[in-house]
Design goal:
Order of helices and strands: HEEEHEEHEHHHEHEHEEHE
Shape: globular
Number of strands: 11
GO molecular function: ATP binding; ATP hydrolysis activity; transmembrane transporter activity
Radius of gyration: 18 Å
Strand content: 15-25%
Number of domains: 1
InterPro entries: AAA+_ATPase, ABC_transporter-like_ATP-bd, ABC_transporter-like_CS, ABC_transpr_LolD-like, MacB-like_ATP-bd, P-loop_NTPase
Distance between the termini: 11 Å
Oligomer: single chain
CATH topology: Rossmann fold
Domain ABC transporter: 19-252
Helix content: 25-40%
Number of helices: 9
GO cellular component, one term: plasma membrane
Keywords: ATP-binding, Nucleotide-binding, Transport
């Protein structure tokens, strides 16, 4: 399959993949009762790309994101992030990877209710022991990036759902990660707010030079993504199978 992307040559350097997923399997349980959530998933994401991961509920999207993010280990196969094989890291190494190189955005926002927007953005930097003044400056810069300069001192309960998700995006960028992983980031938002969040993610990938892997049912993100990968029953769907069956493409690389 010929693959082209909208990522530019100068952003992707020598076009080396930033993320490699190789024949990843993940099973839960054993024997006849085993559940095979992932069945030999393979794909690559180049630096500076936004990749949308689509599929029905139960197709393996969240399991795959957990494996890519170092929150879970594959039963077989390998995940490489910018040349680092996650299977070679111990728990301390995985913790450092998640803290320093990966930013997470969750469907439920995941903000700490008693902290202000700026303080929530600053949490990942606290874990890295970034000095207070530097942390505060970075938090305000990121809130400006996501259009929330005037809401830095408000707590999550004082913000709309879309504003809370913008704070979550800013928090994901706090430690200048290589990769942003987002699991259904518009799942609790109305369609217009969801479009705004998707456009924000697209803009952030461009402006900050990060790579993003986003699980979504939202067709808006698929329109904005550089690459769309579909999972079906724990496998990457093959467009050739769809073409033979006379249906739409199942996995698209644009």
């Amino acid at each position: 399959m010929t693959q082209t992307t909208r990522a530019t040559q100068d952003r992707t350097g020598a076009q080396e993949p930033m993320l490699r997923v190789r024949e990843v399997h993940r099973s839960f349980g054993s024997g006849a009762q085993a559940v095979h959530a992932l069945r030999g998933v393979s794909f690559e994401v180049r630096r500076g790309e936004l990749t949308a991961l689509k599929g029905r509920s139960g197709s393996g999207k969240t399991t795959l994101l957990n494996v890519v993010g170092g929150l879970d280990a594959p039963s077989r196969g390998a995940v490489e992030l910018d040349g680092t094989d996650l299977s070679g890291l111990d728990e301390a190494g995985l913790l450092e990877l998640r803290r320093d190189r990966i930013g997470f955005v969750f469907q439920s926002f995941g903000l700490i209710p008693v902290l202000t927007a700026a303080e929530n953005v600053g949490v990942p930097m606290r874990l890295r022991k970034v000095p207070a003044r530097q942390r505060e400056e970075r938090a305000r810069t990121l809130l400006a990036l996501v259009g929330l300069s005037d809401h830095a001192e408000q707590r999550p309960g004082e913000l709309s759902g879309g504003q809370q998700q913008r704070v979550a995006v800013a928090r994901a960028l706090a430690n200048e990660p290589d990769l942003i992983i987002a699991d259904e980031p518009t799942g609790q938002l109305d369609s217009e707010t969801g479009r705004q969040i998707m456009e924000l993610l697209r803009a952030v990938v461009r402006s900050e030079g990060v790579t993003a892997l986003v699980a979504t049912h939202d067709p808006t993100l698929m329109e904005l993504a550089d690459r769309v990968v579909e999972l079906r029953d724990g496998r990457v769907a093959d467009p050739a199978d769809d073409a033979a069956a006379g249906v739409g493409a199942g996995a698209v690389a644009r």
